[in-house]
Amino acid sequence: MRITTRVGVSSVLALAISAGAAFAENIKIAFIDPLSGPFASTGTNGLNQYEFAAQKLVNEKGGVLGGDMFEIVGFDNKISPKESLIQLQVAIDQGIRYIVQGNSSGVANALTEAIEKHNKRNPDTRVLFLNYSAVDPALTNDKCNFWHFRFDANADIKMDALTDVIAQDESISKVYVIGQDYSFGKAVAAAAVGMLGEKRPDIEIVGNELHPIGKVKDFTPYARKIVAAEADAVITGNWGSDMLGLGKAVIENGYTGPIFNYYAGSDGITAAFGESGKGILMQVSEGKLNPPEESAMEYFSAFREKYPESDTSQPRITNVIEMLAKAIETAGTADDVVAVGNALEGMEHESIWGGKVYMRPQDHQAIQDVHIMAHTNEGVQIDFDNSEFGAVTVNTVEMAAMDSDTTCKMKRP
């Protein structure tokens, strides 16, 4: 199944040029993420956010290059790497030169390899991959390439911030690590064990396991093991239905310590946790939501009016849209993706969510502030799920990992 949605208009009268006039074109951006299956709500939320960001931040301001509009085209990949490659080819065949994807690092790894091969063989139809949420560190390390840009902080950057907080809490002596059984889940586990070992060697890892992604219906057996291990803290990279299922099961089985996580604040999750998650869920993320910047509050209010059942839970999406628009303007073209890629490298961008985003040239990893946020209903202006609950910043690491090492050896066209 392929789901298509258009943002903007199909043909817009552009500014008069000399004695004549030109018709603006739509610059298509392929959104390849799950729009059906167990993670459909996560993908649909992302699609809504891309639609709105394109319309509000680009099209309503006159587009780019004198009137060209952004058009978001949705492709359902069913969270499958194989299906993602099929949809990638469909998008390329339709003349689309910009690909966005974020849900599943397994999918991102498949896409970045396929795009690199395609671009080598087909210089006339090259594409750029704008990764907004797949955070496997390998994507900007050993598997880096010129065509891939990551706008989210990677798993290691986020874990560095989380383990700083854990290391400072003397009440934590036992930690249970659990996650989804694929590249991202494995990266989270490895980073948690390694960083805690360096920062707090006295902490005991009382559990370290992976579970099938998107297939566990009842997390009670896992929850009971966590409680039986007498863990003081839980670390998980789970997202979507797996985050909700694990968190609810752990809390319902009597666990009262912190659950340090990456993705507990999003559509269909925050309201489901509600009061039960207060004082327990601690999320690491980019983009300061509460207290919000004035620009963020204005954007959130307009988004909620258009999509009353959806959330602005992925601030990095606005950065993708605005930075791509800037890069196209700088390059003076949307057709030459090499020129656009060169313009993205080293770009500094002031986010509407506050703080600066810097696209590091050596590995195409976005460097930005990283926040530790608590699930609460106190001090919340930007909420999730139309509930009174949201994520409030309790700790910030400014420009996290700015000087961190990378194994990327970038080969440029």
From TrEMBL:
Signal peptide: 1-24
Keyword terms, alphabetized: Amino-acid transport, Signal, Transport
Residue ranges of coiled coil: none
Keyword Transport: yes
Domain Leucine-binding protein: 27-374
Family designation: Belongs to the leucine-binding protein family.
Protein name per UniProt: Branched-chain amino acid ABC transporter substrate-binding protein
Phylogenetic classification of the source organism: Bacteria, Pseudomonadati, Pseudomonadota, Alphaproteobacteria, Rhodobacterales
